[in-house]
Amino acid sequence: MISGISIYEILTVSTIIFFIGIYGFVTRKNLIAMLMSIELILNSAALNFVIFNKYLFPNELGGAIFSIFIIAVAAAETALALAIIINLYRLMMSLKTDDLETMKY
Amino acid sequence: MDLNSLMLMRHELILTLLILILLVVDIVFTGENKKKVSYIAVGLFAVYTVIGFLPLKEGTLFGGMFETNRMIFTFKNILNIGVLLISLLSINWLNNKSLKHQKIGEFFILLFSSLLGMFFLISSRNFLMLYLSLELSTLPVTALAAYDIYSRKSSEAGIKLILSAALSSGIFLFGISFIYAAGGSLYFHDLVGNIGHSYLSIAGLVMFFAGFAFKISLVPFHFWTADVYEGAPTPVSNYLSVISKSAAVFILMITLFVTFRELIDIWVPMLYGISILTMFIGNFFALRQQNLKRFLAFSSVAQAGFVMMGMLAADKLAVATVIYFMAIYIFSNIGAFGVVQIVSIFSGKENIDDYNGFYRTNPNLALVLMLSLFSLAGIPPIAGFFGKFFLYTSAASKGYYLLVFIAVVNVTISLYYYLLVVRAAFLRRSDNPIPYFKNDVLTRIGLIIVVVSLFLIGLYSPLYDYINSVVNVLNI
Questions:
Q1: Burial of B401: CB neighbours in 10 Å, binned 0-12, 13-18, 19+
Q2: Would the CB atoms of B128 and A66 count as touching at under 8 Å?
Q3: Chunked in runs of 10, what are the mean pLDDT values of chain B (476 residues)?
Q4: Nearest CB neighbour to B185, from listed A21, A62, A92
Q5: What is the rounded CA–CA span in Å between residue A20 and residue B237?
Q6: Which domain range does residue A47 map to?
Q7: Residue A38 is assigned to a structural domain of this protein
Q8: Is residue A1 situated within a structural domain?
Q9: Can you give the CATH number for the domain in which A82 is found?
Q10: How many domains does chain A have?
Q11: Which label site among B87, B253, B364, B387 has the fewest CB atoms less than 10 Å from its CB?
């Protein structure tokens, strides 16, 4: 429990972060910015786990441990995505999604 | 925990050992000997597939996080056979001169790591385990999709796959956090009956489902499918469309049927709508494709719609029919993708029009392509028909007659576009047909296994009886 702050306030924060991430993912035209948006989404989920654990089930650790795993896996995901992005940049000399798109319906 | 109980995860342990052996083998063989790595990998995997069939005890490990029973055991063996076939068909491509780099060891290591992830995925009985194994199965495939690093399309497929996979796992995690708040636990067996019927749990279910819908490429989330399948190397597209999809379908089915049993009045209408949308959109987009890989991508989207129809009944019969259908689908799609892949390696041609006169130059391959496509469409003597038929039975047993009617309409549409390819290969003539080429022994063995199983699974009824008996382990 954090004194003076109810669960609703922190949940509002995490939900706002989540939707900023979704919005950014849909609107950004740069691959790195899209990757950053995904980080926001993952971190909002991690924040959610910690909050629920702290406020609703203070006697166990399931949610807190889950958030540590989320951070670790997100790092792996980012590393792989950055590797592919570097390779794409070497081939295309651009990171704009419009320039990269070759396959269309 | 002693050795006896640890042997419950025999599949996973041997596969891990195999990956480690391959890492060493990859270092030992250099230069001209590099090609041997692929034969060693496939040989070891074939031995492992046979070992996989030895009987296995049932039980749980790690405090109930990992479970194995007859049903999971059967499904793991089906996946093993699928991966064995894909590796058999991919050797030719890996040893081909057209690939500029010789990273053969990496291909198999990543492929098997992803399979390891799938195994943990279908065995997981805890949401943490589910998430980790989902990532373990997705990340290596992403690296494989970008495997051909000199090809722009391959890299594009890789980045599209990783971005959509990461987004989907983000949404999936947000959903799980709600389920955790509603149920108070991450274990499936604790959650049964504890999730409750609140807005919180419904939001959690919908987000959880959306995350999986990305993996299975159900309709609102299918946008990555065609691009990734077209851009990625064909064996990888084959793997994505077959193994990745069926493992995700399996675990989604188990979680929905067992863990989310309380919310059945929410997810049944959801599946109903998504199933109709997926069938129609998959089929109509497949109609207008010229590239065969894109065509197969949309056909696999449509097939996912049929699977969702089979899941609606939410009883043991539904589980049995879906497992049976996925087994058939694995063989049919591997056959179709396999032929496309062989043609693409030798001639670089991937369009439907390029297949004009294919039967005259390569009669055997054309026959395999025809049988696989007929199986996907569901034409009677071949296994695909029985798979579809049982799915209809499962949906009709709960009175979803309208949906069955819509599905039959969709089968008719799909028959039209599958026949377009068959017509091009068999009836059309061409001045510049695909030349004749000789396949190596392993590719032939792979295709023969596919063709034999296409007939065998459909006509040899004890197989369905066996699948029907193993689903009794479920408590639903």
A1: exposed
A2: yes
A3: 81 92 88 82 91 86 87 91 91 75 84 93 91 92 89 88 92 92 88 86 92 88 88 90 91 90 89 91 88 90 90 88 91 91 83 83 87 88 86 88 91 89 84 78 88 86 85 81
A4: A62
A5: 32
A6: 7-100
A7: yes
A8: no
A9: 1.10.287.3510
A10: 1
A11: B364
